Amino acid sequence: MKIVFIKTLYENIKKKISLFQYVGEFLVFLFYIAALFLFAFSFYISREFDSPSAEQILFHFLMPLNGTGSEIVNSFLLNCMLVPFIIAIILFLFSYDYKNIFESNYFQYSILRIFSYLRKPFVKYRYLFVIFLLISSFVTANSFFGITGFVKYVYNKTEFSDFYEKNYIFLNNNTNIFPEKKQNLIVIYVESLESSFVSVDEGGLFESDLMPEINTLAKLNINFSHNDKIGGFKQLYGTSWTIAGLIASTCGIPLKLPFEKNLYDNKYRYFLPGANCLTDILAANDYNISFLLGSSKDFAGIDIFLKNHGQIPVKDFNYYKSVGKIDINYNRGKWGIEDNRLYALAKEELSDLSMNKQPFAFFMMTIDTHMSDEFLDKRICEKKNEREYKYIDVMRCASMQLDNFVNWIKKQKFYKDTTVVILGDHLSMNKKIFPEGKGRKILNIFINARKKPRFMKSRYFSHFDIYPSILVSMGANLDNKGIALGRSLFDKNQTLLEKYSARIMNAELIKRSKIYDCFIFNCLQL
Predict the structure, then answer these.
(1) Which of 138, 214, 217, 242 would give a disulfide with 399, using CB separation of 3.0 to 4.6 Å?
(2) Each residue of 190-249: pLDDT tens digit?
(3) Cβ neighbours around 431 below 10 Å, total
(4) pLDDT tens digits, residue range 12-32?
(5) CATH of domain 184-521
(6) What residues does 487 pair with on adjacent strands?
């Protein structure tokens, strides 16, 4: 009986379905998968990263995934790959026209007959349904992360701008810009640190101050501000995620992707090799440089970037596991070392660096306030809000911990010869907690700078201006008061944002540049 049934079914399939039908049905199935993937990917990206730019998404797809938390990878595979695939199979089977195949009496009373009336409209109009699903998924994706940005990205590959030729300032690494007695440097990148977190009365966006300790640090030291209170700098194109923010504030340029070829091929050995960055200048001037990272150095190519720009050693989550500072089985979550432990390790590193007669430059990046994995350390901070407001408690905890660390630095012997810079890397990805339509800025604080600014309030500036400002805060002499696309905030020169506008700069930065191509392909000796 079974053999007869299978043979009958096979003959019917062979007889009734042409090659054209096979191709058509296969395309329908692929369109189901594509539409469902776009839906799933949109919600996934919104949940994990909250509306990233097209450039950011493309960058992370091109870069190696080493260092990405296993929970992030597993969540992506489950929610964006497996679930859409299963649903696509169900939809395809539900809307497929079986009547041309299953003519056997064995199917007269099958479950397929039970759903025949329910399936009829889907079977009859399934091609229109697929088209509707595709259009809906595209609209959804565009609303979540601006899928039209991919179209603009492709278009701008062919359009050149002379913005760099007009505004980029070159500096030779061998130029003697530092005083005879060199100042040490400590740069603390606090994940997603905004000036917006202070109260409205202080220049922020909240009724009460969410980071009172950091607010006090800003008041007592140098805080360049977009208003006359506590403020910060504007986020431009190519600066809106961690590695992009790091590059923008230390190289004075946005992070863009290579064009003619994928420079991240060849085992990812090169990262903007033609750019001239802060760590290049420090290394050329005999600074002992160290970089401490709470997450994995492999993620987004941070280790490759620092290796290309000064041969900087990076001590990260995996490094401290390998030397026994962190238990081999320790894993607090998706990313790495919690800030409390990271600051303890930073104290050890700074104590070691200060023992050397060389001037030192120490960089670190925290992680607790990362939106997709915000971490409240209950050993030192109390939870006060409901779960949906957890990020507020995390920010308050980060403020307290940063203040404690800065106070420790001030008590050390090396402090009198050290400039401390506190920066946010980019705007927080947790947009839900901010009032809509309000201008948000990234915080900056300069402590123990060698130079006093001409004016630090009501300035309009970006990541790019942090680069020369750090050098000048250390006592460096920049003859033309700027470097790269940045202008020193300690001097009275106009920044490019003050000269142009965010709209004009973004429109020019997204275009292709011959000079920027040389940063990528190292065709100029900068």
Answers:
(1) 214
(2) 999 999 999 999 999 998 899 999 999 999 999 999 999 999 999 999 998 889 999 999
(3) 13
(4) 555 555 555 666 677 777 887
(5) 3.40.720.10
(6) 482
* 8 A C-beta contact, residue 423 and residue 466: yes
Beta bridge partners of 360: 288
Q: What are phi and psi of 290, to 5 degrees?
A: -140, 145
In the chain, which segments carry CATH 3.40.720.10?
184-521
**Residues in CB range of 100: below 8 A, 6 or more apart:** 12, 16, 17
Q: What is the DSSP string of 143-172?
A: HHH-THHHHHHHHHTS-B--HHHHH-B---
- What is residue 362's three-state secondary structure? strand
Query: CA angle at residue 115 from 112 to 116, to 5 degrees?
Result: 80
Position of tokens 């964006």? Answer: 80
Q: Which of 238, 231, 149, 252 is nearest to 460 (CA)?
A: 231
Does residue 515 sit in helix, strand or coil?
A: helix
369/443 Cα distance (integer angstroms): 14
Strand order in the sheet with 360-365: 232-233, 442-447, 418-424, 184-190, 360-365, 288-293, 314-315
Give residue for tokens 């201006």: 465
